[in-house]
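C-alpha cells for chain A. Residues wanted.
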C-alpha cells in the first residue's frame, strides 16, 4: 500500500512514513494510491466479529505489511480495551430506521479516542523499532488535546506538548488534559485564542531547526492519515449490524474538519453500501454552503454551543476535492494556492452534481440544537450532546429514503458540554464513574505568552 500527496509533488510513502510525516512536503495531504476493496462476500464474513477483530480486518490492508500482524492486533486490542462499553461503539435506536452510534465510551468521552488510542500506540511501536524519539505537538480547542494525551502518555519515545487557549476551554476539557501528570505530558496554556495556538504549531512544523537532532515533530490532528484509517472501522461496524452488505445504510455526521465523515466516504469506496453521507454543521457552515451552492468560501468564526466544530475551513476537505478533480495533483496545487489568495473555491458543475448524489448537508444554529436536544429527550428519553444534536436534526429535516436505516454518529458524551444541556432546559448529567473525582485531581500546566520564541525555548528546555 502506497500513499500519495493530494498536491502531486510530495514523495510517495509507505504507511510508517505517512504515520510519522503528517503533512506531505508539498503541503498536500496523504491518501492511499488506491483503496483496498472488499467484496460483498468478504463483508458478509465480517458480520458478528467483536469490534477489535473487525478493526484488524479493516486496518490491515492500509498498514500494508509495515507492521507485523500480531503486533498490530495487540495494539488494536489494547486500544479498544480502554473503552468502557463492551460493544465499543453501541447502536441505540431512536425511532423507525433512526439510530445513533455512540462513539463516546473511550477514556476522554469523544469519538477522537477511536483514532488517538491507536495512533499513540502505533507511534510508540514505530519509534521503538527505529530507536527514535519524537515530539508530538498540537493545538486544541477542546477534545483533540485530551484524546491525544491519553493516547501518548504511556510512551517512552514521545513527549507530547498540547497548547490550549488560556481560560478559553471548558473546565471539564481543561481538567481532562491537565490532571494527566505523566512526565512526558506537557500542557501549555497560551495567552491568546485558539487561532494563535494553531498558528504557533504550524510555524513550529514549518521550521523544526529548534529541535535536538534525531527528534521529529509529529502531527496528531486529523490531517494524519492514521486517524482517518481508524475511523473507517465504525462505519463497517454499524452497517454490518444493520444488514450490510445486503442492506444499504446512510450516515449523518456532525462535521468540522471533515475528518470523520471522510472516513465514511472511504468505507464506501472500499465496497460498503453507504447510500448517503450527511454533513451536519453548526453556524460554521462552509461545508453546508459548498454542498448547497458550490461555494466553498472562508468566512468569520462563530462561537457556538458545539465548539468542537467551530472552524473556518475544513482541513480534510482537500482529500475529497482531490477525488473531485480526478486525482490530478497539479490541478489541486493550483486550486489550493488560488484558495490561499481568494479564500474561495468553486468546482466544475458536473463534478459538484456527481458528489451531491452521495453527500447532503444541513446547518443548525444554537437554538435549533437546544430545541433538538430537548424534543428528543421528551420523546425518547435520550440525551444527545450538542454536536450529536446537529446530526440528529439533519436526519429530521432532510428527505431521506424511508427504507434505508440512518445512523447519526454521537461524537461526544453530553457530560462534556453541560452548557448546551442546561440551555435546553435539562439537568447537566453526572460525570461517569472513572471521572467522578476529576474536580479534585491535581492539575499541572504552564502558562506562556503568545510568543513563538518562548514556546520554542520551552520545548527545547523540557
Ligand atoms: C472533533 C469533533 C467533531 C468534528 O469532527 P471532524 O472530524 O473535525 O469533522 C465533532 N464532534 C465532536 C464532539 C468532536 O470532538
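Reply:
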Amino acid at each position: 500500500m502506497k500513499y500519495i500527496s493530494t498536491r502531486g509533488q510530495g514523495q510517495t510513502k509507505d504507511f510508517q512514513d505517512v504515520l510519522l510525516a503528517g503533512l506531505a512536503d508539498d503541503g498536500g495531504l496523504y491518501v492511499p494510491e488506491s483503496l483496498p476493496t472488499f467484496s460483498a462476500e468478504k463483508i458478509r464474513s465480517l458480520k458478528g466479529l467483536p469490534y477489535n477483530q473487525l478493526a484488524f480486518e479493516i486496518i490491515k490492508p492500509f498498514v500494508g505489511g509495515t507492521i507485523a500482524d500480531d503486533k498490530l492486533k495487540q495494539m488494536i486490542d489494547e486500544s479498544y480495551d480502554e473503552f468502557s462499553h463492551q460493544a465499543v461503539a453501541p447502536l441505540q435506536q431512536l425511532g423507525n430506521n433512526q439510530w445513533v452510534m455512540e462513539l463516546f465510551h473511550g477514556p476522554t468521552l469523544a469519538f477522537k479516542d477511536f483514532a488517538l488510542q491507536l495512533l499513540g500506540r502505533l507511534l510508540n511501536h514505530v519509534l521503538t523499532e527505529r530507536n527514535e524519539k519524537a515530539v508530538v505537538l498540537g493545538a486544541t480547542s477542546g477534545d483533540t488535546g485530551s484524546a491525544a494525551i491519553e493516547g501518548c502518555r504511556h510512551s517512552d519515545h514521545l513527549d507530547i506538548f498540547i497548547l490550549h487557549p488560556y481560560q478559553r476551554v471548558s473546565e471539564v476539557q481543561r481538567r481532562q488534559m491537565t490532571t494527566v501528570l505523566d512526565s512526558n505530558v506537557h500542557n501549555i496554556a497560551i495567552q491568546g485564542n485558539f487561532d494563535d495556538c494553531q498558528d504557533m504549531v504550524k510555524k513550529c512544523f514549518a521550521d523544526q531547526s529548534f529541535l535536538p537532532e534525531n527528534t521529529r515533530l509529529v502531527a496528531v490532528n486529523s490531517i494524519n492519515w492514521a486517524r482517518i484509517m481508524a475511523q473507517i472501522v465504525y462505519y463497517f461496524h454499524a452497517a454490518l449490524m444493520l444488514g450490510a452488505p445486503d442492506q444499504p445504510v446512510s450516515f449523518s455526521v456532525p462535521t468540522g474538519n471533515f475528518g470523520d465523515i471522510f472516513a465514511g466516504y472511504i468505507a464506501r469506496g472500499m465496497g460498503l453500501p453507504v447510500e448517503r453521507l450527511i454533513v451536519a454543521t453548526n453556524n460554521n457552515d462552509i461545508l453546508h454552503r459548498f454542498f448547497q451552492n458550490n461555494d466553498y468560501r472562508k468566512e468569520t468564526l462563530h462561537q457556538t454551543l458545539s465548539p468542537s466544530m467551530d472552524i473556518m475551513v475544513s482541513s480534510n476537505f482537500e482529500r475529497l476535492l482531490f477525488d473531485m478533480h480526478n486525482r490530478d495533483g497539479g490541478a489541486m496545487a493550483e486550486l489550493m494556492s488560488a484558495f490561499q489568495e481568494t479564500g474561495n473555491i468553486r468546482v466544475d458543475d458536473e463534478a459538484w452534481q456527481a458528489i451531491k448524489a452521495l453527500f447532503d448537508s444541513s446547518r443548525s444554529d444554537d437554538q435549533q440544537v437546544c430545541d433538538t436536544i430537548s424534543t428528543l429527550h421528551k420523546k425518547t428519553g435520550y440525551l444527545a450532546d450538542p454536536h450529536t444534536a446537529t446530526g440528529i436534526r439533519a436526519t429530521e429535516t432532510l428527505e431521506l429514503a424511508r427504507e434505508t436505516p440512518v445512523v447519526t454518529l454521537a461524537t461526544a458524551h453530553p457530560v462534556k458540554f453541560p452548557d448546551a444541556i442546561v440551555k435546553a432546559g435539562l439537568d447537566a448529567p453526572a460525570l461517569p464513574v472513572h471521572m467522578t473525582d476529576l474536580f479534585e485531581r491535581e492539575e499541572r500546566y504552564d502558562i506562556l505568552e503568545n510568543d513563538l520564541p518562548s514556546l520554542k525555548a520551552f520545548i527545547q528546555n523540557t
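The radius of gyration is 21 Å. The first helix runs from residue 15 to 21.
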